[in-house]
Every structure is written in C-alpha cells, then in structure tokens.
Specification:
The longest helix has 24 residues. This protein has a domain of 31 residues. The protein has 70 residues and is an all-alpha fold.
C-alpha cells in the first residue's frame, strides 16, 4: 500500500475502522471455535431467541397437558 494511501487512511480514521472490524471478526472466531453453527454464520438475534423460547414454552405446556390426561 502506498505511503500516501496509508497516511490518508490514518487521517480519515479508515485504518481505525478497519482495525476495529478485523478485531471483531477475530474475537468472534476465537469465541466460536468448535461451534459449527456460529462458524457457518447461523446465530439467533434477540427476536429469534424470544420466538424460540416461546415455542419451547408452548411445547412444554403441551407435554404437561398430555401427560396429565393419562
């Protein structure tokens, strides 16, 4: 990379943004080591987590009702 380009990136804070992005990717890779779902980009956001939680609550409630009938 030319020296002028490096200076311009430093001046415009582009190098900081690039370093921050690189650090975020490296951190995610480090903490997701061995987690195939996270490494493949599959993850739940807050809304997805709440939807999954509600579905689990309904499933447990249904199981309780069915086991009380027998």
């Amino acid at each position: 990379m030319p020296l002028f380009r490096q200076f311009f990136d430093w001046l415009s804070v582009k190098d900081y943004a690039a370093a921050k992005e690189r650090a975020a990717i490296e951190t995610a890779a480090r903490y997701s080591r061995g987690n195939v779902a996270a490494q493949s980009g599959w993850f739940l956001d807050e809304a997805g987590l709440q939807k999954l939680s509600a579905a689990g609550d309904r499933a447990v409630s249904n199981l309780k009702q069915k086991t009380q009938l027998t």
